[in-house]
Specification:
The complex is a heterodimer of chains A (112) and B (494).
Chain A: H1 2-20, H2 25-46, H3 68-98
Helix pairs in contact in A: 1-2, 2-3
Chain B: H1 7-21, H2 26-54, E1 57-60, E2 71-74, H3 76-99, H4 102-105, H5 109-125, H6 129-147, H7 153-184, H8 189-199, H9 203-219, H10 229-234, H11 238-262, H12 268-292, H13 297-318, H14 321-352, H15 363-366, H16 368-382, H17 388-402, H18 406-431, H19 439-442, H20 447-450, H21 454-465, H22 467-482, H23 484-492
Antiparallel strand pairs in B: 1-2
Helix pairs in contact in B: 1-2, 1-5, 2-3, 3-5, 3-11, 3-14, 5-6, 6-7, 7-9, 8-23, 9-11, 11-13, 11-14, 12-13, 12-18, 13-14, 13-17, 13-18, 14-16, 14-17, 14-21, 14-22, 16-18, 16-21, 17-18, 17-21
Classes of the chains: A mainly alpha (112), B mainly alpha (494).
Chain lengths: 112, 494
C-alpha cells in the first residue's frame, strides 16, 4: 500500500512542479495547492498506513492507530487553506493593478 | 514560574487580537501597541536574566510529559534572540508611528505586526519541530500581509514571488518533518536528538539534515537560495523593511543553528565543515558583490543582509565554541545595526524622496545628525573598532584561522573590506558632495525620526565598548548550545 501511495505522491508532486513552473498566476496557485496535497499525503504515508482501533485506553484492542500524523495533517491542511486564500487575494490584486496575469510581463524592469 | 515563558507568545497574540477590534482608530492603536512593545521589552529582559541565572526553563503544555506533549524551551540562546527581537521591534514600531500613513494604519498594520512577533517568538521558544513549522507559518503569513501592505504596483509584483517561494519551502519543511517522524518516531527535538544519537548519523539522516538545511537556508537567504531577498525587501516602507531585514532571515539562521547543534552534530566533517562552510563562503562573497554593483541605498542594504548572514553561518560551519560564540555575538550586532541602517534609509528618503544614490547628495550639510549617526552605524557594520562589528567578526575569523580554514577566513576578511567600500559609497554619494535636494526639502525636520533609531546606535557603541562581558555571555550561550545533553536533560528530565 505504501508503494502505491508513494507513486501517487510522486505524480502529485510532478504535477504541482509543472504548474509552479508555468507563467500564469492562477496556475501557480493551483501548483501550491497540489503541492500541499502531496505533502499531506506524504505525512500520512510516512507513519505507515495502519488500520486499528482509536488510541484510547480500556478498549481492549491489540492494534492502535498512530493519532499524531492525523493531527499534524489537520494542522497542515488548515495552514495550507489560509495560505491559499491569501494567495488568491494577492493574485487578484496583482491582476487589478497590473492588468496582466502573465509572469513574463511581471518581471520588473532592469533599472529599478 | 514555568508559565512565564508562554508570555512572549501569548501576550503579542492578545495584543494583536485587540488591535483588530480597534482597527479604525489609529491613535488608540498607536498607544496600545507602543505600551505593549515596551512591556515586551521589559518581559524579555527579565526572562533573559532569569534564564542566565537559573538555567533552562521548560514548559510542558497542559502538563503532558515531555516526549508526548508540546514543550516550550527557554535556553540562553532563545532568550537572547527574544530580547533582540523585542529591542528591534520596539525601535521599528516607534519609527512606524512617524512614517506609516494613517490610511495604512487602518488596514491592520499593527495587528499584522504583533502576529509576526507571535510567530517569531514562538519559533525561538518551541522545543517541538512540528510546532516550529507552525510558528514559521504564523510569522510567514503575517509577513505576507506586511510585505504587501499598502498594495503598490511594485509591492504586489515582488511580494507574489516572495510568497510563492516561501510556500514552496514550507512544503519542503513538512516533507522533511514527515521523513524525520518516520525515521525517529518523535517530534520533540530533544527526543529526536537522542534517537539520532542512537542510530548514528548516516545515509537517510544526512538527507533529512540537508533537506532541513535547504528549507532554513531559503528562509535565511543563504547561497544559492538568496535570490528572492533583494527585490522583495525593496518594496515595503522603511519601518517594515527594517523589521524584516533585522529579524526574519535571522529566524532561519536561528533554526539552522538550533538544528545543527542539537540534532545533526554527529557528522561534523560532512555537514558543518563542508556543506555549511561552503554555503557560508559563497553567501558572504556573492552577497557583498551584489551590494557593490548596486547604486540604490535600500538595495545595497538588502544585499548586505545576505553577505552578513554568511558570517553567522560561517561561525556554525567552523564549529568550535569560539566560532559559535562569535556567530551569536554577530547575530546580536547584526540585528541591531541592520535595523538601524534601514531606518536611516527611511529617514533619508523622507528628506530626498528617493533612494537612488546617484540623485542624492549633500545630506551631511543639511542633516548632520542623520549623517553622523549613519556613519557610526555604517563603519560598525563594516567592522571598524571600537564598535560592535569588529569585536563580533574577530572571534569568527580568529577561529577560522585556528581551524586552518584559511580560504573561508580570507573570504571573510575580503568581504569586510568590500562592505567598507559599499558603505563608504553610500556615505560618499548620499551625504557628501553637492546638495541635490531642494531648499524646501533641506528644511524638513527629521529629529523625531531619529529618536527611535538613536538607542540602536547607542547599543552598537555599548556592545563595542563592553565587548568583553558581551563576549563572555556569547561564549556561555555557545557552550550551552554546543552541549546538547544540557538541553536534552532539561527537557526530558532524566
Amino acid at each position: 500500500m505504501e508503494i502505491v501511495m508513494s507513486i501517487v505522491i510522486g505524480i502529485v508532486f510532478a504535477v504541482s512542479v509543472y504548474l509552479l513552473l508555468s507563467r500564469n498566476l492562477i496556475r501557480i496557485i493551483l501548483g501550491t495547492l497540489t503541492i500541499s496535497h502531496g505533502v499531506h499525503l506524504l505525512l500520512i504515508t510516512m507513519s505507515e498506513l495502519q488500520r486499528g482501533a482509536p488510541p484510547l485506553l480500556n478498549l481492549g484492542e491489540e492494534n492502535y492507530t498512530d493519532p499524531l500524523p492525523q493531527a499534524l495533517v489537520l494542522t497542515a491542511i488548515v495552514i495550507a487553506f489560509g495560505v491559499t486564500s491569501m494567495l488568491l487575494v494577492m493574485a487578484y490584486r496583482t491582476y487589478q493593478e497590473h492588468k496582466t496575469e502573465d509572469l513574463e510581463q511581471l518581471r520588473g524592469s532592469e533599472d529599478e | 514560574m514555568n508559565n512565564l515563558i508562554i508570555l512572549p507568545i501569548i501576550f503579542p497574540f492578545i495584543i494583536g487580537a485587540i488591535l483588530i477590534i480597534f482597527s479604525k482608530k489609529h491613535k488608540l492603536q498607536r498607544v496600545i501597541s507602543g505600551v505593549a512593545s515596551i512591556l515586551m521589552l521589559i518581559l524579555t529582559i527579565y526572562l533573559a536574566i532569569i534564564v542566565f541565572q537559573d538555567g533552562i526553563i521548560v514548559l510542558e503544555a497542559s502538563n503532558w510529559p515531555a516526549p508526548f506533549g508540546i514543550v516550550l524551551v527557554a535556553d540562553m540562546f532563545a532568550t537572547l534572540m527574544l530580547l533582540l527581537t523585542a529591542i528591534i521591534s520596539t525601535a521599528c514600531l516607534f519609527f512606524a508611528f512617524k512614517t506609516i500613513t494613517p490610511k495604512r494604519e487602518k488596514f491592520y498594520f499593527y495587528a499584522f505586526y504583533y502576529f509576526l512577533l507571535v510567530g517569531v517568538n514562538g519559533a525561538f521558544l518551541t522545543g517541538d519541530i512540528f510546532n516550529l513549522f507552525v510558528f514559521f507559518e504564523v510569522l510567514l503569513l503575517s509577513s505576507y500581509g506586511l510585505i504587501v501592505h499598502g498594495g503598490t504596483k511594485y509591492q504586489l509584483r515582488e511580494s507574489f514571488k516572495y510568497v510563492i517561494i516561501n510556500v514552496f519551502t514550507s512544503a519542503l519543511f513538512v516533507v522533511a518533518i514527515s521523513w524525520l517522524y518516520s525515521v525517529t518516531g518523535t517530534l520533540n527535538m530533544a527526543h529526536i536528538s537522542e534517537r539520532v544519537a542512537e542510530m548514528e548519523q548516516t545515509g537517510v539522516i544526512n538527507i533529512i539534515a540537508m533537506m532541513l538545511f535547504i528549507v532554513f537556508a531559503t528562509k535565511g537567504a543563504l547561497f544559492p537560495l538568496y535570490f528572492w531577498l533583494p527585490k522583495s525587501y525593496f518594496g515595503p516602507p522603511a519601518a517594515i523593511a527594517a523589521l524584516f531585514g533585522g529579524l526574519l532571515t535571522k529566524v532561519g539562521i536561528y533554526a539552522i543553528i538550533r538544528v545543527f547543534t542539537l540534532i545533526f552534530y554527529h557528522d561534523v566533517e560532512y555537514s558543518h565543515k563542508m556543506i555549511i562552510s561552503i554555503a557560508a563562503g559563497f553567501t558572504m562573497l556573492l552577497g557583498v558583490l551584489g551590494a557593490v554593483s548596486q547604486f540604490d541605498f535600500k538595495r545595497i542594504l538588502s544585499y548586505h543582509i545576505i553577505s552578513q548572514v554568511g558570517y553567522m553561518v560561517m561561525g556554525l560551519g567552523i564549529f568550535t565554541p569560539l566560532a559559535v560564540a562569535g556567530a551569536i555575538f554577530y547575530i546580536a550586532h547584526h540585528m541591531v545595526v541592520k535595523t538601524a541602517l534601514f531606518l536611516f534609509e527611511g529617514a533619508a528618503k523622507r528628506v530626498t524622496g528617493l533612494s537612488d544614490l546617484r540623485q542624492m547628495g549633500g545630506l551631511l550639510k543639511t542633516h548632520p545628525w542623520l549623517a553622523w549617526l549613519f556613519f557610526i552605524t555604517a563603519i560598525s557594520l563594516a567592522g571598524i573598532p571600537p564598535f560592535s562589528g569588529f569585536f563580533s567578526k574577530f572571534p569568527i575569523i580568529l577561529a577560522g584561522f585556528q581551524e586552518e580554514q584559511y580560504i573561508l577566513a580570507g573570504v571573510a576578511l575580503l568581504v569586510g573590506l568590500l562592505t567598507l567600500f559599499s558603505m563608504m559609497k553610500i556615505f560618499g554619494f548620499a551625504f557628501w558632495g553637492k546638495q541635490k535636494h531642494t531648499e524646501e526639502q533641506a528644511n524638513i525636520n527629521i529629529r523625531k525620526l531619529l529618536v527611535p533609531v538613536a538607542p540602536l546606535v547607542l547599543l552598537t557603541i555599548v556592545l563595542g565598548f563592553a565587548a568583553e562581558p558581551v563576549f563572555q555571555y556569547s561564549l556561555q550561550v555557545a557552550e550551552q548550545i554546543m552541549d546538547p545533553q544540557i538541553y536534552i536533560d532539561s527537557v526530558l528530565k532524566e
